[in-house]
Amino acid sequence: MEHCILKVALDTPLDFCFDYVWVVEDGVIRPLAGQLVLVPFGRREVVGLIVAVHETSEVPLDKLKQAIAVRTQLAPLSAEWIALCVFAADYYQRPLGEVAIPGLPKNLRALKTTSLDKAIKKLGKVDAVHDATPIAMPELNSAQQQAADAIAGASGFAPTLLYGVTGSGKTEVYLQAAAQILAHSIDEHNPAQILILVPEINLTPQLEANVRARFPDVAIATLHSGLAEGERMTHWLAAHLGRARIVLGTRLAILSSLPHLKLIIVDEEHDPSYKQQEGLRYSARDLAVWRAHQLSIPIVLGSATPSLETWHHAQSGRYRKLELRERAVKDAVLPKVGLIDLERKAPREKMTEGISETLIAALKLRMERGEQSLLFLNRRGYAPVIACDSCGWISNCTRCSAFLVLHKLDKRLRCHHCGYEQRIPRFCPDCGNVDIQPLGRGTQRVEENLQQIFPEARILRIDADSTRRKGSAQEAFDTVHRGEVDILIGTQMVAKGHDFQNLTLVGVLNPDTALFSHDYRASERLFAQLMQVAGRAGRVAQKEGGSVSEVLIQTRYPQHPLFAAVRTHDYDTFASELLEERQQACFPPFMYQALLRAEARELKIALDFLHQAIACVEHGGITMNDPIPMTMTRVANVDRAQLLVECASRPALQAFLKVWIATLREMKSRVRWSLEVDPVDI
């Protein structure tokens, strides 16, 4: 009997592929690279990816196990998709199997093919539609039209930064550029596909509604972690088979199979949510750029506050920059930004439970005029901590270097890091004092206070606690859009992407903590956050007799340069100054970094491992910083430390990491460690 050798990638920490024998019987087609295969692995059976098919193996034939079954009902994954996974594995220093296999829907990796067969049958009942004619499209202003034409008319790899102020109509530019590309793709055997990425799940329903309204006859797929597994399987398969012409998704969608991809759009490209923070710590934005280069297709990175890396590429000419300096709606202008000085001594601003009298008056005015307001506080829960004035006790988490946050509605103290929770104590556990009080304010406390100040107001809070149930976030946003809310209170969930038509006031509470963070990216993120949340106001033309759109920021540091830039909506100057600081300090994008993290039951063990990691290999030309405890040192009874590695050359850093990783894997240690390339949280 004839046989062949299947080189299979499996989801294991082992950095190589496994060889399996496949017996070629009469009438059986030889397996192909890109097909999934069921194989024995140890005492269990697992699904792997065939990376290559060979005639021989370096392992003796009698030592090899035989593959069980090939998923022939599924079209093979393309060579380009495998190459994408190979690149991601190589760059982020992970085994190929840990990239490729988790990138597939869970049901596709199941031992039985029931879900796959069901999804294929379901798609088979739906006629493939290739008519991508959109409904009547709104007229664009000149800047929008130039941007849409430039994107659609690009040939080959064309990375473009679409830099537009909030409300400038970037989404409309995406849709009209997509319409042009779909219209020019008339080959029914090779229909163009377009991938649109958004940073968060709660932004997908609004975008999907816009896309479906514009392209009613086009098959659209959505891919994000909020989908049920069967639903995700069907959508992934529609994209893989080329039936879905437009694919919308969060960061995981960048690893989806799209055989006819012709355009990639990354909306809000600056958002840190595009960086995976566990497992394969990849940047979806960076992989999107590489994928566009691989396929020689255009890519659009859109933002009102681009990341400094993207801005630097645009300034240096590596990326083309298209600008939208005005809001798309005629007579709609950027909101006026004002600062409420909480440290002013004469006259001192009167405060009511953390909300200034100026802000309260502004909220009252909007309510009287039937307009909506938004209060932004990026801290959920009722209060960050409860404390005892008598002995100084505070509600620390017993498992983490963090406080237990008071969640008054649930009557619980909860750790936002490890999930530990307990009942709210009736008295101080240390001294017995019954007068223990909450310190600080979260969104729940602000909501409670506003209900007392404005008992007649319709107040809605949107944060991770109020939107736990599936679909509840979209229900909440729909309530706002219908005008059934007077005052919206929210965290970063409400700060970007949402088009609130009747919102004329944004109040920002407690932004000052980010001004003094140890993280060198904190000011960049705070500026982006403030500009994004400010952009929720004044997105339509001012009504006669209506309020001027306004943003009021409560701060104790009104003279800080960051607030000066926010007041004038001057991202250009702010970014230029930050880039100059980064260059002087040798920080990214002028330096390339990797972060080695170590976890152990004792901090000393983790630090000792990192010191050994420095000594175990030559590192000429590589800067190895001292091992230090992480800011959040203890999480879930595990101590954590980190070692930052830097180099001015990306290729040199990559070459070093390959040698270093191989050496670290040979070290015997009780420490759990991981390496992150291009870290965003240090």
Structure report:
It is a single chain. With 682 residues, this protein is of the alpha/beta class. Helices cover 29% and strands 23% of the residues. It has 17 helices and 30 strands. A 7-stranded parallel sheet has the order 8-9-7-10-11-6-12, with helices on both faces. It has a 6-stranded parallel sheet with strand order 13-25-24-16-23-22, sandwiched between helices. Strands 2-1-4-3-5 form a 5-stranded antiparallel sheet. It is globular, with a radius of gyration of 27 Å.
Helix/strand structural class:
alpha/beta
Output the number of helix runs.
Answer: 17
Low-confidence stretches: none
**Overall number of strands:** 30
In the sheet with the most strands, the strands line up as: 8-9-7-10-11-6-12
Rounded to an integer in angstroms, the radius of gyration calculated over CA atoms is 27 Å
From the N-terminal CA to the C-terminal CA, the straight-line distance is: 57 Å
List the SSEs and their pairings.
Blueprint: E1 2-9, E2 18-24, E3 36-41, E4 44-54, E5 69-70, H1 79-91, H2 96-100, H3 114-124, H4 142-152, E6 158-164, H5 170-184, E7 193-197, H6 204-214, E8 220-223, H7 229-240, E9 246-249, E10 261-267, H8 284-295, E11 298-303, H9 308-316, E12 320-324, E13 336-341, E14 351-352, E15 355-356, H10 357-368, E16 372-376, E17 385-388, E18 405-407, E19 412-414, E20 421-423, E21 436-439, H11 443-453, E22 459-462, H12 472-481, E23 487-490, E24 503-508, H13 522-534, E25 550-555, H14 561-567, H15 571-585, E26 592-600, H16 603-615, E27 623-624, E28 628-635, E29 638-647, H17 650-666, E30 672-677
Parallel strand pairs: 6-11, 6-12, 7-9, 7-10, 8-9, 10-11, 13-25, 16-23, 16-24, 22-23, 24-25
Antiparallel strand pairs: 1-2, 1-4, 3-4, 3-5, 14-15, 17-21, 18-19, 19-20, 26-29, 26-30, 27-29, 28-29
